[in-house]
Amino acid sequence: MKPSRDIPSLIQLHKAKGHVYVTSWKGRLVVKAWPRARGTPKSATTREQMAVFAVSQALAKLSLPEDVQISEAETKGTGWYPRDMRTAAMYGTLFEVRYLY
User: Fold this and answer.
1) d(CA 16, CA 3)
2) C-alpha distances in angstroms, 16 versus 3, 19, 27?
3) Is 71 in contact with 59 (CB distance < 8 Å)?
4) Which of the pair, 14 or 94, is modelled with greater confidence?
5) Rounded to whole angstroms, how far apart are CA atoms 8 and 5?
6) What is the pTM of this model?
7) Where exactly are the structural domains of the chain?
């Protein structure tokens, strides 16, 4: 009995170490390793941006209680998370819009 070509073989499953997921590609099932191994970013600009983002996230975790309360009050009823607001403030991209009624 010949195995079906659409079902990944046990050999494919054995080759992928760690977590795997099975997906469809061109109508066939394919076994892939998850998460995909990614190397260090090649560009110096990308590495710098990743470092700045890591610092901003560390600072967002260490926010003062007053800042947390303000950001929670300002983001209530909006699509923002308080952490997003504090991160935008650290990057200098947070601006305030006042509605004039």
Assistant:
1) 20
2) 20, 8, 21
3) no
4) 94
5) 8
6) 0.51
7) 1-38, 44-91
